[in-house]
Structures are given as C-alpha cells and as structure tokens.
Model the fold of this input.
Amino acid sequence: EKLCAKRGTEMHSGKVEDYISVPELLKDRTITEENFQEIVDLVAEEIALKIDKIIGDNPCDEISEDEIPSCSCFSSPKPVTISINGEKIDFLLLPKIFLKFKKQGKKPENLGEDFMKEIKIYNYIPSDKETAVFKLLKEYYDYFCINGKMKCYIE
Done:
C-alpha cells in the first residue's frame, strides 16, 4: 500500500508506466482458503490488463506518439522478425523501445550503448552478432522515426 516497489523503480530505473496496489485492489475482499485461487486470478488478470495496455499487440501497426495500442488479455507481445546475415531473429518490444527513444529526440546517428542496453533487457543478442544487430536496428529505428511504424520483415 506504500507503493515501495513503484517508488524504488522510479528512483533507480526510471518512470513507471503503470502500477497495481494489491491492497487497494482487494480492499473490499476477505481472503480465505476457499477463495484464494479466485483472488490470485483477480490479481493476475489485473496485471495482464496493465501489461496489454503497455505493450500493445501488432508491432507493425503505426504507433501514435500519444497512445500505445492495446491487445487482447493474456497474450504475448508479437515479435518483430529481422533477418541478419540470412538468420531470422525475433525481437520483442522494439516498437515500445523505438517510441521511447524517439520521444527523447534521439536521432539514429546518435544511438549508442543505452539503446542496445534497452534492447538487451528484453532480447538475447549473442555477443558475436551485436555489431551487426546494432547496425541493422539503427536502420529499423530510422525507418520508424520517418514512417511512425515498424519496418516488418517479409520473407
């Protein structure tokens, strides 16, 4: 109820997109052994709704500066598939990351370590492919900045 995790995250990592106060969510409920699973499901559903709102659904849809598209509950974000030297690699949350950097006013030529650090929070990139991935993601980011949507890989 004191939102310690939210405040700690903001202090050490940055802005929190949304949060849930479990005591507030459950304020009118009594937790018993009989309704425990129902309570767990209620909290899980609330988390899923918040995540869906933040993450969005189709990475190839145009993304507005003011809104992030929502998707159906309990679904995973759809990856953006990029071909690097003939190998297809799926990346999660690229539209959200790109939008964050675009809102910060970052130009493709000014992207650096912080950009790759953000990408690697959500995606595994083998160290031997990092340079090629960085170069290609800069191109994709440039396309995103110009067109307002992801450049999607088509086989």
Notes: The longest strand covers residues 80-84. The longest helix spans residues 36-55. Residues 65-74 have pLDDT under 50 and may be disordered.
